[in-house]
Amino acid sequence: MRGSVGVIVGETSPLQFKFMIHGAVGRGDYVKVRGDGRSWILAQVEEIRRSNTAYSLAHMERGCTQTCREWVVADARVIGVPSDGRIRSPAMPPRPGEEVFAADEKMIAAALGLSKGDMYIGILKGHDLRVELDANTLVQKHCSVLAKTGSGKSYTAAVILEELLDKGVALLVIDTHGEYGSMRYPNRDGDFNRFRVKPKGYNITVYTPANLAINPRADRPFRFDGLNLSARDIARMLPDDPTNGSVALLYEAIAALRSERESYDLEDIIKQVEKANSKSKWTLIGQLEQLLEMGLFSGEPTRPEELLQRGHASVIDMTGVPQEMQPMIVAKLLTDLFEARKLGRVCPGMVVIEEAHNYIPERGTGRAASTSIIRTIAAEGRKFGMGLMIISQRPARVDKNVLSQCNTQIIMRVTNPNDLKALSKGLEGMSTELEEEIKRLPPGTAMIVSNEIERPIVVNIRPRRSKHGGVSTPIVMTDHPVKGPVPRREPQKGPGLFLRKVLGPRGA
Q1: Residues 23-62: pLDDT tens digits?
Q2: Spacing of C-alpha 362 from chain mean position
Q3: Which of 24, 346, 421, 422 is deepest in the core (most CB within 10 A)?
Q4: What is the mean pLDDT of residues 206-223?
Q5: Are 8 and 35 in contact (CB under 8 A)?
């Protein structure tokens, strides 16, 4: 056993103790101490304080100049006593005077449950210890990735997606900014040796609800079935909330079409609404025509069976789609997909939603047509084999009901007070110390909170195997010299300038 790093001082409890440091130990490190039953108690250093009475204010005011011994004291939070693959709380606190030792990695892994999973996320901060989460638990009980802009949330989310694809999980990704199509290419930039990963590309298909000319990165257009739409389907897709009168007009128009023919499309519905004897029809016609112009409906729609395939990610790239239309598209897409899953027409899988605050806004911060179906998936998805991952830089603006359903929360740096408050409400055991830790997390480092792990842990996220597509575009170009001002051209004077430009000089 390595030498001790300190000795317990002062009052102790089964939850915490203090120890005087005389070895190499830092904030966040794991330590162990003997309990009354001589079993090892595992604890984590939460805070370290340094003092010297010779330099205390009272001492200096008395004019004392003698030197005193410097004290370095650590506050340690008890995790528990590892026993038979489980962790239990100690019945009695450790004794003052007991020596404190650095915990070995085998004990840490066993106590925290880091080796039970099959998804390699990264390395425990301060240790060369792999952190592995359980894929089934993460998918079935949902997951969230939360961080401020620039902290690496999309990068970390892609690391999770890589692991899920390697396990054969079917994925559907709502990609607001076109960041995930790059997963088809291997990564060429990363500390692969330290984290022991190899670059590779993945089976990705990118769909666009917009035109391929607008989004040339996409592989295929994404389209809904345009035949025999119901009034409910159309009302859910309208850019603005339809009035009761508009919905009634829709029902009447569709009922008339169904009585006359076997099939109809959106253009037929518009023509039928035009026949109505109602002043409110013009607002509805304008909304329907806007929907028609989007080109989202087709006789050759994208089938749910095509979108969910084992070991494959279907990316719905929203680039070029008006922001107000995006929640409507997601609402119908997820409704169709969830119904197909309940009927067993598609395989189990996971829905991943980037910029989740746009699709499931918290009450009071906005409204979105997609909120209802995402709430349904969060509440009932486990029963039907459909998991959910939400990604956002604004936790305070994400529907708290959905956020609370996420059993695994991966939190990177967050500094906004409202977002920290939302995290505190949504996480069990969130302390002031953990809040401060979240505010100080460097890029590429995440706190993982899960019922499968005994307490929150800080992890250095491994490099992606696939290429990262969320790189920020540089604004300041240091290698491009700034051009001087464009010289002003004096206007030419004299009669007939316009005619000379058109007809040429005289005599030509």
Answers
A1: 889 888 999 999 877 789 999 998 899 887 666 655 555 5
A2: 16
A3: 346
A4: 93
A5: no
Q: What is the average pLDDT value for the chain, to the nearest integer?
A: 87
Task: Enter the pTM of the model.
Answer: 0.85
CATH number of 119-222+302-461: 3.40.50.300
> Strand, coil or helix: what is 488?
coil
| Nearest of 353, 385, 386 to residue 371 by alpha carbon | 353
Which pLDDT belongs to residue 367?
85
Residue for token pair 């035109």? 211
Q: Which two tokens stand for residue 110?
A: 């066993």
Start-end ranges of CATH 3.40.50.300 in the chain? Answer: 119-222+302-461
The DSSP secondary structure of 225-294, one letter per residue, reads: E-SS--HHHHHHH-SSPPPHHHHHHHHHHHHHHHHH-S---HHHHHHHHHTS--TTHHHHHHHHHHHHHT
Lowest mean pLDDT among 33-42, 91-100, 233-242: 233-242
What is the bridge-based pairing of β-strands 143-146 and 40-52?
Answer: unpaired
Q: Residue with structure tokens 């000379």?
A: 500
